């Protein structure tokens, strides 16, 4: 398999393939650039402490099947790669339980943009930056997807994020939005598109949304221009 660069596996039966099988295979293909697993994520065979690092990997797609942590917890995703996977976002969110495989994502640190989409056809949370891309789709749809996505953001270092896009957002409270925005000190662009009750999002931008009275985006007051529009239920502020 020395010359293999692309691997796709689709619709395996439950228990047909284990984590060990896949890790052994990936180690035998050092030039592998693309891995795509459709309803073929292993559900057994955890390899305690084992890590595989495909140095040439550029794209990983792992959706449906077993919990992605069983495989991704042993796979080091290199800088510059693009990862798409499914994650079980609990509802209501459970704090201090981020996906266990996040420590293996070498392409996740230093992301500069975040995209949250609550679109019923393609809900996802996506991180982009100079180190690559990570996209997480919920395994189970939620009616309050935006709240579910905002809560896990506390597990990521969002201090370098410069852009936040929220599509088809639906919030139950401005408090979730306020707490998610507090660490984003370098945010320069905020875009809300087709969001339900945009006033809830706007309420989360001022200190009154929390007893701490801490203002989000303290540097905004020094920006030379501001643009806010409620047309099409959207609001943006760009440096």
User: Which radius of gyration do the C-alpha atoms yield?
Assistant: 19 Å
Give the beta-strand count.
Answer: 10
> Helix-strand pattern, N to C?
EHEEHEEEEHEHEHE
Structural class by secondary-structure content: alpha/beta
Explain what this protein looks like in three dimensions.
With 239 residues, the chain is of the alpha/beta class. It has 2 domains: 1-76, no CATH class; 87-239, no CATH class. The protein is 14% helix and 24% strand. It is built from 5 helices and 10 strands. A 10-stranded mixed beta sheet has the order 1-2-3-4-7-6-5-8-9-10. The longest helix is centred in the N-terminal third of the chain and has 9 residues, at 19-27. The protein starts with 5 loop residues before the first strand and ends with a strand.
